[in-house]
Design brief:
By secondary structure, this protein is an alpha+beta fold. The protein is globular.
Length: 81
């Protein structure tokens, strides 16, 4: 799977929403490695310049989970993803 294909998935929508709100956002971790190697990506991580509360504000219409809020990690739920 390429990084371009990632942008077409739900995670790509999250990344675009952060960027449209004026924050930097990038795919990181194993999904980048898998995309480069042409493998399916199942665990997608995004890093952003937005603080956790800013991230939650960008996605205020969606369900967010303070997965690791102490470390700045917020999960954004889009449907079941």
């Amino acid at each position: 799977m390429s990084l371009e294909k990632l942008m077409g998935r739900t995670e790509g929508q999250v990344l675009r929403a952060l960027q449209e709100a004026g924050y930097e956002g990038y795919f990181v971790g194993g999904c980048v490695r898998d995309a480069i190697m042409g493998r399916e990506c199942n665990d997608i991580d995004i890093t952003t310049s937005a603080m956790p509360e800013e991230t939650k504000a960008v996605f205020s219409q969606l369900h967010t989970i303070d997965t690791g809020i102490k470390h700045g990690t917020v999960t954004v739920m889009m449907g079941r993803e």
